[in-house]
């Protein structure tokens, strides 16, 4: 199944059961008879948009000090081995037997490929680890890095790139100070697909200056490129960011909850029915650093509201997608 990508027959069975969204969790339950947990790890890897290679400021929504993570043992002060083993031990007590290792904060394909390979080899050396998820930027997938990852795919591991995309529009990427182009996004997705590496794109709704049409274009363009999965978030203003300055100057307003649910459903209607949806909201952002919005971002509550809205509309994911 891995080299062929997402199994469409399984996705169709999800819709036949009455679910309006191709939820990643439902899909995974169907292809695996056992529970799998993603262990987040922090190896202290940096980002070229902050270390001075491209810029020192980073994206306008990214806190200068990085985003605090509230997962116990996911902390670069511990060795990778310790982070994996402590979390694995805790999850095994709950009956979970198989794992992905999710290299999460920073740009996890940026740096010396040999050093990265050492980290990935260590993560994959555990017999209960079935694959990796690597959070990264579209301009940080060198041929060397992709060759290493393709090597893992050939050995039967499931490799996911968690790709920060945010928008498919250059004017928005520039405004966000992403410091990469749409062409990097296209190349990254196509190169991964060619090598049997899965791509989960991260997209933000409600970005400054983006129109409804542009957001729908992002859904359709990523679908046409054959992206495997999406994590969709509302834009959150956090302290110590350029976005916070824009917010206090009155140059940006976050979406209210109702607007977000509506936009999210519209976005999903314009996304291919075969793209798996991993998330429809953010991980919990600590209240002490959140400036706006004030409504709860809880993933489960948002998902329930999206399902209710689809029932009200009588539609589902992909209904307006023309491939
Ligand atoms: S690419 Fe990611 S880590 Fe780097 S500045 Fe932007 S949001 Fe932050």
Top keywords for this entry?
two-stranded antiparallel ribbon; alpha/beta; single chain; binds iron/sulfur cluster; globular; 323 residues; seven-stranded parallel beta sheet
Molecular structure report:
The chain has 323 residues and is α/β, with parallel strands linked by helices. The protein has a single domain (8-313), classed as pyruvate-formate lyase- activating enzyme (Alpha-Beta Horseshoe), CATH 3.80.30.20. The protein has helices at 8-16, 24-31, 80-93, 113-124, 143-154, 170-175, 182-194, 212-224, 242-248, 257-269, 299-313, and strands at residues 36-41, 98-103, 129-136, 158-166, 198-205, 229-234, 237-238, 276-279, 290-292. The strands form 2 sheets. A 7-stranded parallel beta sheet has the order 1-2-3-4-5-6-8. Strand 5, helix 8 (212-224) and strand 6 form a beta-alpha-beta unit. Helix 10 crosses helix 11. The longest helix is centred in the C-terminal third of the chain and has 15 residues, at 299-313. It binds iron/sulfur cluster (SF4). Iron/sulfur cluster binds next to loops. This is Radical SAM core domain-containing protein. InterPro entries: ELP3, Elp3/MiaA/NifB-like_rSAM, Radical_SAM_C, rSAM, rSAM_horseshoe, rSAM_sf, YhcC-like.
Quick recap:
The protein has 323 residues and is α/β, with parallel strands linked by helices.
């Amino acid at each position: 199944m891995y080299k062929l990508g997402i199994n469409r027959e399984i996705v169709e069975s999800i819709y036949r059961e009455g679910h309006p969204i191709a939820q990643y969790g439902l899909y995974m339950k169907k292809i695996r008879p056992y529970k799998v947990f993603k262990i987040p790890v922090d190896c202290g890897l940096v980002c070229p948009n902050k270390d001075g290679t491209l810029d020192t400021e980073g994206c306008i929504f990214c806190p200068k000090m990085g985003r605090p993570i509230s997962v116990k043992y996911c902390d670069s002060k511990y060795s990778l081995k310790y982070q994996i083993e402590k979390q694995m031990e805790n999850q095994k007590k709950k009956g979970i037997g198989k794992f992905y290792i999710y290299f999460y904060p920073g740009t996890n394909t940026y740096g010396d490929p040999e050093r990265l390979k050492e980290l990935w080899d260590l993560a994959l050396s555990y017999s209960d680890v079935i694959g990796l998820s690597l959070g990264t930027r579209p301009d940080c997938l060198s041929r060397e890095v992709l060759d290493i990852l393709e090597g893992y795919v050939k050995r039967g591991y499931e490799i996911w790139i968690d790709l920060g995309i945010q928008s498919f529009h250059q004017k928005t990427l520039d405004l966000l100070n992403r410091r990469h182009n749409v062409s990097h996004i296209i190349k990254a997705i196509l190169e991964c697909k060619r090598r049997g590496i899965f791509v989960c794109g991260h997209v933000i709704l409600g970005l400054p200056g983006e129109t409804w049409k542009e957001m729908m274009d992002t859904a359709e363009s990523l679908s046409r490129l054959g992206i495997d999965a999406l994590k969709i978030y509302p834009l959150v203003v956090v302290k110590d960011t350029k976005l916070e300055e824009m917010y206090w100057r009155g140059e940006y307003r976050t979406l209210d909850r109702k607007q977000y649910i509506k936009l999210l459903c519209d976005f999903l209607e314009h996304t291919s029915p075969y793209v798996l949806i991993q998330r429809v909201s953010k991980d919990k952002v600590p209240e002490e650093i959140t400036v706006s919005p004030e409504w709860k971002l809880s993933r489960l509550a948002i998902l329930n509201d999206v399902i209710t809205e689809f029932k009200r509309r009588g539609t589902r994911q992909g209904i307006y997608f023309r491939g």
